[in-house]
Specification:
Order of helices and strands: EEEHEEHEEHEEHHHHEEHEEHEEHEHHEE
Strand content: 15-25%
Oligomer: single chain
Number of strands: 18
Number of helices: 12
Radius of gyration: 19 Å
């Protein structure tokens, strides 16, 4: 049987996903985001371990400009002897944020420059234009070599256009234009001591306060399908848009059945809703973060997941921290019907999910 696996790599509080599919002896590969600089060390080692005839990827996706998604990729682009290449790069740069593409000065940003210097195709699957859901019609679907089918769930033009006037500020947050500003989430519910069933129930029922970050809203989010297996890769996408796209996808039918769902924004309370959970049925939920900056995952996000997941679900964390280990409680697991999986002690930040 062919493989479809997702490795969450050590990107600290960010995302760095190494995806393989197809023949186990010679799989096709996708890289989604690059985490913090720590992730580059892992990527560099992995690239070097690939056989010379396998040192290419079908796709590189930079979901959006945020430091915890792009910094590792910037280290990669600066590597003098980069061992790999990418057939296509999906990334909405400044010129892609408006329907009439501009050729403004911001095309000179580091990631854009790096793509050009490497000679990689940029948004080729979208005719080199914006990776965006059109205002009318069906959701865009692209098929990669080897049969991987990607359905775009985010962003819309509304989300891209909202980012355009604050592009420079978001680049500064990402560390591309000087000192990094504080972009911490607003405070959520905090638990004191061991979690109780009552606290989880209360958090699951708490009022949703949506994330308003323009950068997060511009995230490229896809439904990836291969050989009968399906996973949603969210970046930091906004929950209402993902809910709308998934509802459109099922077109009045039952909720979309998945093999895995990666929680948006590392399990932030502002990007995960009950309404989103009602659109999917998944047995695995992936959470990528060490919680070092924003105390992710937030109580509300995981509470909504275990409360509305339908039971018999698995929470897969790539770090075991104070914010993730609080869910490894037998009483909670038995009551809500879930299990937890963490990396081995010597593999912090790295965990593989076989779909």
């Amino acid at each position: 049987m062919s493989i479809f696996r997702i490795d969450m790599l050590p990107g600290r509080e960010g995302d760095c996903l190494w995806i393989e599919y197809g023949d186990a002896a010679k799989p096709h590969r996708i890289l989604v985001d690059g985490g913090r600089p720590l992730a580059w060390k892992t990527l560099e080692t992995r690239f070097a371990q690939l056989a010379p005839d396998q040192r290419y990827f079908e796709l590189l996706v930079l979901s959006h400009v945020d430091a915890d998604h792009v910094e590792g990729l910037l280290r990669m682009l600066k590597a003098p002897d980069l061992a790999v290449s990418f057939k296509d790069v999906w990334f909405n740069g400044h010129k892609h944020l408006e329907k009439i593409e501009s050729l403004g000065a911001k095309q000179g940003e580091e990631f854009t420059d790096g793509i050009g210097q490497k000679g990689w195709a940029w948004n080729a699957a979208f005719d080199h234009k914006s990776v965006v859901i059109p205002e009318t019609g069906e959701l865009p679907v692209k098929t990669l070599s080897g049969g991987m089918r990607l359905t775009l769930l985010s962003p819309t033009w509304e989300k891209l256009e909202a980012l355009s006037p604050v592009w420079k500020a978001e680049l500064r947050k990402a560390g591309l234009l000087g000192p990094e500003e504080d972009d911490s989430d607003s405070p959520g519910v905090e638990s004191l001591g061991a979690l109780t069933i009552e606290e989880v129930e209360e958090a699951a029922a708490s009022a949703f306060k949506p994330d308003t970050s323009e950068a997060n809203g511009s995230s490229i989010c896809v439904l990836a399908e291969f050989d009968g297996r399906r996973v949603v890769l969210t970046g930091d996408a906004h929950a209402p848009l993902m809910t709308e796209s998934l509802r459109k996808l099922r077109d009045g039918g039952p909720p979309t059945v998945l093999d895995a769902f990666k929680l948006s924004h590392h399990g932030s309370h502002g990007t995960h809703t009950v309404e989103l959970m009602n659109e999917i049925r998944s047995k695995r939920f992936l959470i990528s973060t060490d919680g070092s900056r924003h105390k992710h995952p937030h109580l509300e996000a995981i509470a909504r997941t275990v409360k509305h997941g339908g039971g018999d679900i698995e929470l897969i964390f790539n770090y075991e921290t104070a914010h993730t280990s609080k869910w490894d409680v037998a009483k909670l697991k038995n009551h809500f019907g879930y299990s937890t999986t963490y990396p081995k002690n010597d593999e912090a930040g790295m965990i593989r999910t076989e779909l």
